Amino acid sequence: MDMQVIPVKKGDFNLKDYDRMRETFSWDDMKQYFTWNHTGKVNMAYEALDRHAEDPNKKDKIALLYSAPDREEKVTFGELSKESNKFANILKNYGIVKGDRVFLFMPRSPEFYKAFFGILKIGAVAGPLFEAFMEQAVRDRLQDSEARVLITTPELLERVPQEDLPDLENIIIVGDLKDESDKYIDFKKEMEAASDEFEIEWVDLEDGMLLHYTSGSTGKPKGVYHVHNAMIQHYATGEWVLDLKEDDIYWCTADPGWVTGTSYGIFAPWLHGVTNVIRGGRFTPDDWYQTLEKYGVTVWYTAPTALRMLVSHGEDKVKNYDLSSLRHIMSVGEPLNPEVITWGIKAFNLRIHDTWWMTETGAQLIVNIPALEVRPGSMGKPIPGVEASIVDNEGNELPPNQMGNLAIKAGWPSMMRAIWNNPSKYESYFINGWYVSGDSAYRDEDGYFWFQGRLDDVINTSGERVGPFEVESKLIEHPAVAEAGVIGKPHPERGEIIKAFITLNAEYEESEELLEEIRQFVKTGLSAHAAPREIEVRDSIPKTRSGKIMRRLLKSWELGLPTGDTSTLEE
Ligand code: WTA
């Protein structure tokens, strides 16, 4: 196909006049600026990479600034475009076609991004998995998605239960193979041999692009399915909310195993052709400040947990670094404490802009933007093209200052299009035309939204979503544990920590060692961030007559709150 590149006209979507924009803006108007408007076909990888690689002024610009303790690498748009072509050719050789699921289970590295775009270029659906996942978490996701190919490292390979994954035909290994058998595909070798030319698979806006697994309060993790159309909103929010300009050095601290690390760690910055800092390895306050200083980061997207950690290390630490290039900071994932905003003004001389959205929403919806006044403690206002409200359980809108379900009028561009293999779960999100988020909030008279909490049992620990059911299921696999109920317990730095209540099987005695062993069992079997920090042994776990664990009751007991209606409690 002969592609005519029509660059998006930057500056057309200026949010200085937010109120007018809210009235006049329509997503359809925005589509005219993208290439697909002229061809009808699209590919995120083209818009985010190849378009810049074809532009003589952009081709040699640094796309990826990778930094890890033991490795530093710069990759230009031209190089990343060619390298991802190579990877797409590898996938093609192994018979991967449009719509197939190809998963990545590896730490952030240049190879990750090359492979990721290769997957999109062939029209396959990418499934990034957080590197901390252990066997159970990996099994659940690969089984449910029926992934045909997995890209991983020699270190993580042992957590991939290959015998339980009949659909997984090939494993591509990034790094030195311990086992020289031809059971695995060597990334490096195949990349060396592959052609760097590839005819991109042009897809429809509604074709699948990404599968992000996330947790709810019941059942296994759910595959949230996103399509190429999401790019419209990634682009728009990249301009309105991230405030990206041509020469920005942008850093999003999230891992691509979580939605922030794809929507805003990959798509938004690269749709704008901006240099993107990717940091591998573990984080410490000094490493973070060094990263900001060394690369001259101008726009920084991070999370409240991280910011609270920085606060606890004090303002003096900041003064050791020259952070003068920084001009815009944003936060997502949990409530952003007003005190952190106040601290940010002292420490960085900048406001920290809270943003609200979810895996299911694919992109930011309620935000603080540079052009608006920040009310510390509020998530801000909906972006143009998005209608947000507070509704009751029947989907009727509630007046200002009344708490209820935070809901969004269905139909924004980056909205999930399905829950993989689970249509009824997908349906259950929508009431009366509203997408109901599971968060409770209220809206003030001026249209600012204020987060109040989760309405379900989902735990948010250090900004990471954990489903209590997954943890409970793992706990009861331990021979000592008879029953388990898991809750989130408020914690000043982490937002919440995971607390488990368990009953022991008759032949087991409670001891420090046993509880630690159980904790380790979850940590090594499921994932580190899902391991309960506190375990309490009880004689029984409260359940409804139909056998559901009453986590609300456990939580009320834990927090010394009134227990409310317990009429369904089992005798
Ligand atoms: C919570 C992350 C308060 C919320 C992008 C939501 C927030 C869940 C905020 C989604 C915020 C996200 N203030 N709470 N600004 N942003 N949350 O799917 O409970 O990992 O439902 O997506 O995080 O988490 P998820």
Average pLDDT, all residues: 93
What is the CATH architecture descriptor of the largest domain? 3-Layer(aba) Sandwich
Q: For the record, what is the CATH homologous superfamily label of the largest domain? A: ANL, N-terminal domain
Q: What spatial order of strands do you see in the largest sheet?
A: 2-1-11-10-12-13-14-15-16
Task: Give structural notes.
The protein is α/β, with parallel strands linked by helices and 571 residues long. It folds into 2 domains: 18-443, 3-Layer(aba) Sandwich (Rossmann fold), CATH 3.40.50; 458-559, ANL, C-terminal domain (GMP Synthetase, Chain A, domain 3, 2-Layer Sandwich). It is built from 18 helices and 27 strands. Strands 2-1-11-10-12-13-14-15-16 form a 9-stranded mixed sheet. It has a 5-stranded parallel sheet with strand order 4-3-5-6-7, sandwiched between helices. Helix 17 (512-525) links the parallel strand 26 and strand 27. The longest helix is centred in the first third of the chain and has 17 residues, at 77-93. The radius of gyration is 24 Å and the shape is globular. The termini are far apart. It binds 5'-O-[(S)-ethoxy(hydroxy)phosphoryl]adenosine. One of its GO terms (biological process) is acetyl-CoA biosynthetic process. Belongs to the ATP-dependent AMP-binding enzyme family. This is acetate--CoA ligase. Its EC number is 6.2.1.1. Residues 57-418 form the AMP-dependent synthetase/ligase domain.
How would you describe this structure in keywords?
571 residues; alpha/beta; Rossmann fold; GMP Synthetase, Chain A, domain 3; 2 domains; nine-stranded mixed β-sheet; five-stranded parallel β-sheet; 18 helices; 29% helix; disordered N terminus; binds 5'-O-[(S)-ethoxy(hydroxy)phosphoryl]adenosine; EC 6.2.1.1; acetylation; AMP-dep_synth/lig_dom; ligase
